[in-house]
Specification:
By secondary structure, the chain is α/β, with parallel strands linked by helices. 46% of the residues lie in helices and 21% in strands. The structure holds adenosine monophosphate and magnesium ion (MG). The site of magnesium ion has 5 residues, from helix 3.
């Protein structure tokens, strides 16, 4: 291929346009996330948001990197998994641009895009992906020529759990970063914490996970008068340890030695530290891409589209 590949991400509350050049080198995305004043994401409202800001963001990403749309030689969009109304908006924007420019259009898998940007950014070869985002919590690895989901949440995504817990305390979306701040503040205040009085359910079921019981129990601690920063610390410890445990089981089962983090919750330093500890204990390695490529972004979609078009 000779030109640039555009990637359009619309699986949930973020609309994002990203680019890779003719060598597959990634360029930062132009993104906008719907942040509801109250409650969670309504799929139709998110889709309307994406429609409203699409033209402006598309122009912005081209301008950011000084390119003209005639230099695009492929258009990729996230085909799933995601919210139906949001996916439809992304697919129709992508189709419109590809048809107008008469370039190939390709739909790609959002989870695999997290793996490919991580492999490229971190230089790992054949990792187990611990994909921890708002709506998704999955452990994925490539076996016998295909990516397979080895374990996943049985109820809500870890990020949604953190966001919902935060919302119950009046903390606006996204709650994950604020919970991280509060947990760190607790460690400053109480450098040698124990779980006494802060126990929460720990839901690993074979290779699967669950978070709704954890959410309810953490909220109960707050209602019973436990300090919020202490609960945030315990909530992170329980939730992250369960994810890392399933990832470790997957590494043991597949014989792989690389762990790769992806998804917005992979921005969390405690999650990164726990993953490093586990991987080091197994004489393996843990990797996490730059934060702008952990959260949902159009660049990873462009990269996977580029790779798939190249290998067609
Ligand atoms: P994504 O769905 O991959 O775009 O990621 C969004 C999710 O990542 C939201 O649920 C955020 O609360 C969460 N998130 C972002 N930064 C952090 C952080 N530092 N710690 C924990 N969660 C985070
Ligand atoms: Mg994602």
């Amino acid at each position: 291929m000779t030109g640039w590949t555009l990637g359009i991400e619309t699986t949930a509350h973020t609309l994002s346009f990203g680019l890779v050049d003719a060598d597959g080198k990634p360029y930062p995305a132009a993104s906008d996330t719907l942040r509801p004043d109250e409650g969670g994401i309504h799929p139709r409202e998110a889709a309307d948001h994406h429609k409203d800001v699409a033209a402006e963001l598309y122009a912005k990403v081209l301008e950011m990197h000084g390119i003209n749309q005639n230099q695009l030689t492929g258009v990729a969009y996230s085909q799933g998994p995601g919210l139906g109304p949001c996916l439809r908006v992304g697919a129709s924007i992508a189709r419109g641009i590809a048809t107008r420019l008469d370039v190939p259009l390709i739909g790609v898998n959002h989870c695999v895009a997290h793996i490919e940007i991580g492999r490229q950014q971190c230089g790992c070869r054949d990792p187990v992906l611990l994909y921890v985002s708002g709506g998704n919590t999955q452990v994925i690895a490539r076996l016998n020529g295909r990516y397979r989901v080895l374990g996943e949440t049985l109820d809500i995504g870890i990020g949604n759990m953190l966001d919902k817990f935060a919302r119950l305390q009046g903390i606006p979306f996204p709650g994950g970063p604020k919970i991280e701040e509060l947990a760190s503040a607790y460690l400053e205040r109480c450098p040698n914490p124990t779980m006494e009085g802060l126990e929460l359910p720990y839901a690993v079921r074979g290779m699967d996970l669950a978070f709704s019981g954890l959410l309810t129990a953490a909220q109960r601690l707050v209602e019973n008068g436990t300090e919020l920063d202490a609960v945030c610390w315990s909530l992170q410890e329980h939730a992250f340890a369960s994810c890392v445990e399933v990832a470790e089981r997957a590494m043991a089962h597949t014989g792989k030695s690389e762990l790769l983090l992806g998804g917005g919750v992979a921005c969390n330093e405690r999650m990164r530290t726990m993953s490093n500890m586990m991987a080091n204990d197994r004489e393996g390695t843990s990797h996490a891409p730059p934060k702008m490529y952990c959260i949902d972004n159009g660049t990873m979609i462009a990269l996977l589209g580029f790779l798939e078009l190249q290998n067609r």
